[in-house]
Amino acid sequence: MDAKTFDAKSLLDDLFDNGVLFDSGIDGLYGRSGDFEEVIERFEAMVLREGEKDGATRIHFPPGMSRPALEKSGYMKSFPQLAGCVHSFMGGESEHAELLGKMATGDDWTEMQESTGIAMTPAACYPLYPTVAARGPVPDEGLLFALSSYCFRHEPSKDPARMQLFRMREYVRIGTAEQVSAFRESWLKRGRAMIEALDLPMEVDAANDPFFGRGGKMMAASQREQGLKFELLIPVASLKKPTACLSFNYHQDHFGETWGLKFADGSTCHSGCVGFGLERLAIALFRHHGMDVKRWPANVREALWSA
């Protein structure tokens, strides 16, 4: 595709015009067609088929988690700009009448809502660590989980690959530093092979998370220097700035220390994860192979529909 038309607007227009996505009036919040959902289902099956031989425990978390747990995780220190919390009306009849009055006059009625204690899940693995910690010591061989969740990040954009509500499929390894490093290296190879099978252009590069503020710049530089995060990048909305569709992360002992994840001998566990951005991968497939899935290359359809 010509670099001049390889942009977010042309892609979003194509997805809308062909009925793959449906405009909701809010950037990053879209309806999805049956074909779009089927592509995600088939890719998820492909991911699960690749990982099932490792014997991971499957857990599906809801899109909301405990707000105190999110706070304890350190997320608000690093990514306050992405976080969202759930609020609800908790008043009586008189307060309800006041709320309706505010709506009628166009005034802000949301100030009459109170926190429910629920935060939107920012990544599929965040609810996992307190769940595992509550079970007691981690066995010597470590633990492996296959996770799925809808996630929320407040970053409205015209780029259809950067949604505010999206699904994430993750594998998470909890164990020794050596166990986690081996897990990540294995999935770096597997991830590349899976994307190659889908005939998508890609590159793997060192990366950093979007840490907030001036202090965040130092954290981002440290993350890159230590090689704690790699991303598999696919050109989706831009040729110059490809989209991260898979991420490979080594948390060191951050979550182990935060949640008291320990082995029976008292030593602190390390953790790492590989994350698949399902909507991003689906959009990459529509971008590169066309809006009609029946006309996608035979090898791509076989890779997906044979899963």
Automatic annotation (TrEMBL):
- Has keyword Ligase? yes
Enzyme Commission number(s) from the entry = 6.2.1.n2
Q: What class of enzyme is it?
A: ligase
InterPro entries recorded: aa-tRNA-synth_II/BPL/LPL
Q: Which UniProt keywords apply?
A: Ligase
GO MF terms, alphabetically ordered: ligase activity
Q: Which SUPFAM superfamilies match?
A: Class II aaRS and biotin synthetases
Identify this protein by name. Answer: Amino acid--[acyl-carrier-protein] ligase
